[in-house]
Write a structure and sequence with these properties.
This is DUF423 domain-containing protein. It is a multi-pass membrane protein. With about 120 residues, the chain is mainly α. The chain has one domain. Helix content is about 85%, strand content about 0%. It is built from 4 helices and no strands. The radius of gyration is 16 Å and the shape is elongated. It starts with a helix and ends with a helix.
């Protein structure tokens, strides 16, 4: 993803995360157990962090450039879809098997942040 696309995707993910946060706080409060609300909140938190991370990566692209930041942004998006997505579905459906794929998203997040560090270390400027 180029920097512009990454900002757009990050901002749209922030929009979705705010919607999900509000929905969890107001719409789901009486429908889900406390355990499932905590899971929902975790999904929102990680979505927010990594949506902001995508915007930060886009802002770093002109400074450090390179494929590492491009991969980092893509991995953050994949992590949101897999990590937060699986937790949203787990909270809504109670299907515990969905928790088995959540760590794949977590690994995507970890790899994304290592790539940010690598891009800064290698730096173009």
């Amino acid at each position: 993803m180029n920097a512009r696309t990454l900002v757009i995707v990050g901002a749209l993910n922030m929009f979705v995360a705010v919607c999900c946060g509000a929905f969890g706080a107001h719409g789901l409060k009486k429908m889900l157990s406390d355990e499932m609300l905590v899971i929902w909140h975790t999904a929102v938190t990680y979505q927010v962090m990594h949506a902001l991370g995508m915007i930060a990566v886009a802002l770093l692209m002109p400074k450090f450039g390179g494929a590492a930041l491009n991969w980092s942004g893509n991995l953050m998006l994949a992590g949101i879809v897999i990590f937060s997505g699986s937790l949203y579905l787990l909270a809504l459906t109670g299907t515990r098997v969905l928790g088995a794929i959540t760590p794949i998203g977590g690994v995507a997040f970890l790899a994304a942040w290592l790539l940010v560090a690598w891009a800064a270390y290698k730096g173009v400027n």
